[in-house]
User: What shape does this take?
Amino acid sequence: MPVQTPPIIDPNPEVTMPDEPVDELSVELRAGGVAETAPGHLVGSAQPLGVDVSGPGPVSTAPAPSGSTPKRPGDRIFSALASGSGLFIVVLVVLVGAFLLWKAIPAIGDDKTNFLTSRIWSVGDRANSFGIAGLLWTTVLISVFAMVVAVPIAVGIALFVTHYAPARLAKPVAAVIDLLAAIPSIIYGIWGIAILAPHLTGVQNGLSSGLGWIPLFKHHNNAVGTVFDGGVVLAIMILPIITSISREVFQRTPRQNIEAALALGSTRWEMIQLAVLPYGRPGVVSGAMLGLGRALGETIAITIIVSTAGNGAPFDASLFGKGNTFASQIATGGDALFAHPGPFIAAGLVLFVLTFLVNAAARAVVNRKTVS
Assistant: This one.
């Protein structure tokens, strides 16, 4: 067989430029190492190019961009309603605060005693002496105690419903917890003082005998009607709010976080510690602060359950004593509430500021944890 000698390729070939105009596409194809044989065809392919470069360029039919996109009438109406609703809430809160200040400042100026440190509440035609020291302490004490009882139970219920209970059991349990929020406050008050409080007497006596040296658990020989009784009932009342929000947050934990913790060999409880609780902490804080706001303003149940301490009673830090909250004092004002509303509005102003500060602190905590 004859041996074919390969052709000799000149390493420095001379390039001759054609006299006719050179097509831009041909130059680009040659620069990229692709040879062109005919307009619209490439070497090695019998198919024409997808774009005909010999014809005119594409014609755009899209309208030229303008400065602003026109809005439809429905969009403008909905935007105005949404903005107006948000502005209305802000204006309403400002008006409520302005009204309380307008009515409370003259009453505080006419007060015969110290408004912040006095425990006397005597309002009438001849006497106008009132203070909020006792009301503030009882309100804060009973609300914080309710939170201490309710938050761990609510978080435990939320974790049970979302990560432990089977589906056929989780839904009924969640529905029953949510139904607790539909029970009227007066029913809680009657049930608390008539049924629950007598059964809590033994618990009070046990805590007093073991921890009586602490002022918070000092014994007072009060069988029923104590701050302790009111705090337990209040914890049951705010339980649905905290449980519902915690449950919704735990259910939205990213699945990849849960699977990553389990893939590392974590048990179910370790997975909850590593993935679920850190992700749901801002939601739990939000639910707890909403429950605290409800506890601070609860009126009927506390009025029925907690016995009054009496006008000018000495300071008592014990959970097993008696007392009045802001809400119960206003609710039991009687004829003086309408004849001399100034002192009661001043007490309402303090409760308004206290609730506002609690909500603002909760918002700051949630925002900080979300950013971190």
